[in-house]
Amino acid sequence: MAVIKEKAEFCTLLVDELYGQLPARVYATLFQRGKLSTRLISQFSKLSPRQVKNGLCVLQQHNLLFYSIDANSGEAEYSVNHEYAYNLVRAGKILEMVDNSYGPAGRDVMQNLLLLGQTRISDLVAAYQAKINLANDENAWLNDKKPDLVIKSKAQLNSVLCRLIEAELIDVVHSKTFKSVHEIEKQVHKEVMEFYFPNGMKGTKAKIEFEQKVAEGLRKVREESKTLKRKLAQNGGASKRRKLAVGNETNGAPEEEEDLDPALDPRQVIRINYEKCIVELRSRRLVQYVNDTLGETTGYVYGQLLKQLTKNTPRCRPDPLMDTLMSDEEKQTPSVTTNEILDKVKTSIDLTLGIGKIPSKSISKTAAERLTPLAPRDKIPFMNQDDSDDDDEDGDYSDSDEEMDTKKENGDAPVARMSRPEQLRQHLLRLAESQPGFVRHCGEDEWTIDFKPLMENLRATELDSIIEQTSGRQGLRLTRILRTKGKLGEQALQSLSLMRKVDLQQKMLEMRLAGFAHTQEVPRDNKADPKKSIFLWYCDTEQAYSSLIAKCYATMVHCLQVLEVRRQKEKDVLSLAKRTNVKGKEKDMMRDESYARFAKFLKDERLLMAEIMRIDDTLALLQDF
Fold this sequence. Notes:
Distance between the termini: 19 Å
Domain DNA-directed RNA polymerase III subunit RPC3 winged-helix: 463-539
Function: DNA-dependent RNA polymerase catalyzes the transcription of DNA into RNA using the four ribonucleoside triphosphates as substrates. Specific core component of RNA polymerase III which synthesizes small RNAs, such as 5S rRNA and tRNAs.
GO cellular component, one term: RNA polymerase III complex
Helix content: 55-70%
Radius of gyration: 29 Å
Number of domains: 5
Strand content: 5-15%
Oligomer: single chain
Family: Belongs to the RNA polymerase beta chain family.
InterPro entries: POLR3C_WHD, RNA_pol_III_RPC82-rel_HTH, RNA_pol_III_Rpc82_C, RPC3, WH-like_DNA-bd_sf
């Protein structure tokens, strides 16, 4: 897969920032030259073979490489795994997400996997056991404070790993993990041809069957990383094991929760599954959108809905080859009922919050309860921007504040009389009626989410927000005119926008330089004289996205470069702060001038990293969610 230059440069700087200069030089050489053997990497990077092997070991340990054996020479050839490399920047967000969902113990395990890369379960258990033994050794902490361990036993570690594996946040490393998608596809093609079509393909029907067999083979390869999850499923899920434990406890046989989970195979090698992590990050982002637009209570309800709908969603975007040729049953969008959501909502949550207090006679129940059995197809998010809200043109049906106060005093407030399931339905109906389409009311008491049109709407909103920040309200208005009307000449655009010619030309030039507007030359005759040609303005949304993505990567590269310059400038102060007798006591041990420089560097570092995180939010929405 082709990678834009800015992304390659950012990934190289990120590897340098995290793992040092040697792995970064090897990584940069592979990014620039493509698939190479160890000998060629040494030749192009000017590193010795030993240095190259050390760099490759670090990169492969952290899943940043693909490799394959050349059939002719027998040499191993390496290429970069750019998606894993870029996802390193999301480590902090992933840890925060795991902390919120699985507690400090889950965060600690994920943090160690981020630091160690792919790890054998037995090695991970041994590392934690050594830490536990050290913490329990009283002689080792005579003069120091004894640390408070997050993981206190092997059973607890095994339980946490089981939770993370069942959630697919941790995957198993298998024989094809380090093969690129192209190599796996090539191998599956060969196997399908040899097994099913030894005499070749003839006709359209055979070609369709061939594509289906290839998709099935690729899905089998993809499922090899879920072997541990399938073994855990054979013993029942976590909730089922807890229910059995409760039954045993009532029969007089109490059992610790950590002891309920089966012991994992210590020989298995595990790693973080970034695809599933991005699914969870998308859910958090959507909940934040709902919190900002519809309130925190509705956002909480939406979060519970997302948890149930995405628990079996392995990735945000389906693979164009593997996931488009599935059966109709496999393609069916999952849905949940109101009662299933209500079972997950905490009883301490007040569902009356965030629901409008309007009498039932003022609400059209037919419109509110309207079902949408089918997902919207080919929805264009920009076409509804000029629609006006005419909900109140027939009159204002809501009660005044005095009327509502009177109803409350008489105990006649509609929300207070609702049952808890009905209150939950009101939140779900609000989500279904929202402009982005957060939820679809797909059945009598069923709800689902159409992620593709929803994310298209949110991407469109994000693009409009960036255009407004960059080119102002006039720039956004011109963009919407061009989207609605299509390609326009300057005179027609001036007539529709009601702007002066000079102002229009200046604004359109500004937007063209920003990548939000484009021009097309239409010759008047066969000579194609530019002086006699017509130039039409238009907006290409996909080009705008591509331009914006490239600028985001370029800005992130600039942030890391500025950070490195600041680090070199304050090199003497940073080396002083790293000394063992100074670390942790910088303010007391360093002179005022040195400490002021050190504090200023830390502040600048936080600001630059916060800027990178903010830009990553935009990139995730534009290309990952």
